[in-house]
Specification:
heterodimer; A: 236 residues; alpha+beta; Immunoglobulin-like; four-stranded antiparallel sheet; 19% strand; B: 204 residues; mainly alpha; Rna Polymerase Sigma Factor, Chain: A; Arc Repressor Mutant, subunit A; 66% helix
Chain lengths: 236, 204
């Protein structure tokens, strides 16, 4: 089949409307064609939305139990990573790259993935990218109150457990200091069991990340002693 | 609130993509969370395709186990986690319906009665989403809507559709593409964006 004909299969593939042979050819094409990957990602979201147009009765409660039981039985040789938040991701980028072709849409070469890392992503995607960076740096705050995760690109996520909600009129503010001057890196309210915060500023190697309590809206420079701080030193 | 029993608070503030990242680390609770978020919609979809409760449950089970086995291959840059999960369930449902060849004898209207869940909030949200997507579908030209519905809900391949509708395959391809592209536009119109993800406000 000609490449042009393969481009035209994107919508049908997104709808699962190709027969097996065409689907296989299209997936092979997809591994080489960035245009189709982009188009497919976008059309697949539209196709997936069609799922929501159906009536959705509750499935039997047994179904949930069966799925979880089967999943557990398949996991037998996998050692649980603890604590789960802080563990490095098992999958390397190389594994992801090798596994990609079978799933078509999720397929990306390693270089392609790296190219895209710097493109604009939503906050949640960026958080996910930081948390799943196999070479990311993880530093704990003293007292095990939380962890700073810095990806290889410098994007950083704070994960804090049991951080009480800021008092009314106050907010937590994060700071990044690579020289003497701390620069503001975002405000948040806390209060969740686990607070996951994407910093609004990259964290260079050896920079210090601090947390203070400030008035609502945040400030340009810290007005109080840091509640906690940690240095982004490389792993020993 | 009763919902917290089904949705542990440690997950409630996580994005779908973050939950999938935990599933990739073989976290069973994260898989349960993902099921609680999408199991019902996935089941509704599989049931619409397969028209059989038992087969629909099989498709959902296989789809979620595929999620479990392959979560480390999910690339959040490429797709929403919800799309990924629903795609895997849909693909399984289509495989089953083609194998069972159940499609032709039955009409493609959906007469299922929704069953209330134990969460009024879920019900309201699903109803809102259903009406939103149905409204967008109604705005498509008839032939485009027909192609999308027969393909996605009916499980017909493009060549089967061409035969059924007495049209060249190229025409069917064009209708599917135009229909999906238009649906994408309609769903992206202002006021219909994704819900904001609350726990990560930041300022610079």
């Amino acid at each position: 089949m000609e490449a042009n004909a393969l481009h035209d299969l994107t919508a049908a593939y997104a709808l699962d409307a190709l027969d097996a042979e065409d689907a296989r050819r299209y997936e092979q094409h997809l591994a080489r064609c960035e245009r189709c990957r982009d188009e497919l990602a976008s059309l697949s979201d539209a196709a997936g939305s069609l799922a929501y147009a159906t009536e959705a009765p509750m499935p039997s409660p047994d179904l949930r139990a069966r799925i979880l039981q089967q999943a557990r039985s398949e996991r037998e040789n996998v050692v649980p990573l603890r604590p789960r938040w802080l563990a490095p991701v098992a999958a390397t980028a190389a594994v992801a790259a090798c596994a990609a072709i079978a799933l078509g849409i999720w397929a990306l070469s390693l270089s392609d993935k790296l190219d895209r890392r710097n493109q604009a992503l939503s906050a949640q995607q960026r958080i996910n990218a930081v948390l799943t960076d196999p070479n990311g740096n993880r530093k704990r705050f003293a007292g095990d109150r939380g962890t700073l995760v810095v990806s290889t690109s410098g994007d950083a996520v704070l994960i804090m457990r049991s951080l009480a909600a800021a008092r009314p009129g106050r907010t937590y503010e994060a700071w990044v200091a690579s020289g003497k001057t701390p620069r503001p890196a975002g405000t948040f309210e806390g209060g969740a069991d686990v607070n996951v915060v994407l910093l609004g500023r990259r964290v260079p190697p050896n920079a210090t990340v601090m947390l203070t309590l400030e008035r609502d809206g945040g400030t340009d420079a810290p007005t109080s002693q840091p509640l906690m701080s940690v240095e982004n030193t490389s792993r020993s | 609130m009763g919902e917290y029993v089904a949705m542990p608070r440690s997950f409630a503030h996580l994005s779908d993509e973050a939950v999938v990242a935990l599933v990739a680390r073989s976290d069973e609770e994260a898989l349960a969370e993902l099921y609680d978020r999408f199991g019902r919609v996935a089941y509704g979809l599989a049931r619409r395709v397969l028209r059989d409760d038992k087969l629909a449950e099989d498709a959902v089970q296989e789809g979620f186990l595929t999620v479990w086995r392959n979560a480390d291959r999910f690339m959040p840059e490429r797709a929403k986690a919800s799309t990924w999960v629903l795609t895997l369930v849909h693909r399984r449902a289509v495989d089953l319906v083609r194998h069972e060849d159940r499609r032709r004898a039955e009409p493609l209207t959906d007469a299922a009665e929704p069953t209330p869940s134990d969460s009024a909030e879920d019900d309201a949200w699903l109803r809102f989403e259903r009406e939103r997507v149905q409204a967008a579908l109604r705005q498509l030209p008839d032939q485009q809507r027909e192609a999308l519905e027969l393909a996605y809900y009916g499980g017909f391949s493009q060549s089967e559709l061409a035969e059924r509708l007495g049209q060249p395959v190229g025409t069917i391809k064009s209708r599917m593409f135009a229909g999906l592209a238009r649906l994408r536009e309609l769903l992206a119109e202002p006021g219909h964006g994704e819900a904001a993800w609350k726990p990560t406000p930041f300022t610079t």
